[in-house]
């Protein structure tokens, strides 16, 4: 069996898969580090309840304890870890000490995500020393970006130091492309697509011939679209202004960019899209946050069409993209010039195809499954290792 770990800054999704990459159970730990931390497991070994977990390391220990009590731990052969930033790594890799040191060097590129992932890796390697551990990279899908999309308008010596566009949500893109091909066919999947992974972290990726040709996130996961607590693209002069006018230091700027902007910052209440949509009927700031999120997503979608030379299909996914018809409708509103025309009933029902059959650009909703891709990549790595 394979244990899959997909960690965020304060949550962990995990799953157990057999050697054919079929999922046996899935679980999630939320609100790590708070008094409201809880775990929910679906499947044959269902569990739901509050668990006091102060950090990602404690959460890793609790997952191992749960698997032991469920009688599954001894059957686990390997652990697959989602790693947000892999720089130029094209494939998943076994985590030996040298790879662990390499990952430490990537920590500055995504401090919040990498800290949680590295804490989990260290805990799991200590708790499960006899198991193989595999790093699966969110950036790998974008490693063949065209040079013009990869470069940033910086001094050459900084570009040569690796300050370029890496892109993220690659594991999600990998799954969504395959799922789309299975349902819509190879011809459709080989066309000009935009994958809109919209969640607490959000990005759009332009795909042509089943390869990434551009993406909204760049050097770090903070850029691109407006997100739950991250601003996305903004005038870089704002940061220098804040250091001079407001006296903000590096730590304060990091806290601002990673945890205080986006939907939360504009609404001044929450980063939860569902709550904002409900509050927006009376709360002007909540409505402004939603409107800005959709406006910036719409602009990004239109911009990526230039990289593609047109548009054949849009795929919505992620927690927001999969579950909120109002957001999809607002993003697509006014995009008739791109051939987009939504079917209102299909959209409200979160159907697979939510555009009118006659529309020249088709729009789809596909739930993503990053954990499945991590399981498959982990199985491939350990098979080659043997």
Automatic annotation (TrEMBL):
- Enzyme class at the top of the EC tree: transferase
Instruction: Specify where it is mainly localized.
Output: cytoplasm
Q: What is its EC number?
A: 2.7.2.1
Residues annotated as binding ATP: 197-201, 319-323
Q: Please give the cofactor(s) recorded in the UniProt entry for this protein.
A: Mg(2+); Mn(2+)
Marked site: Transition state stabilizer: 169, 230
Specify the protein name: Acetate kinase
* Native source organism of the sequence: Dyadobacter fermentans
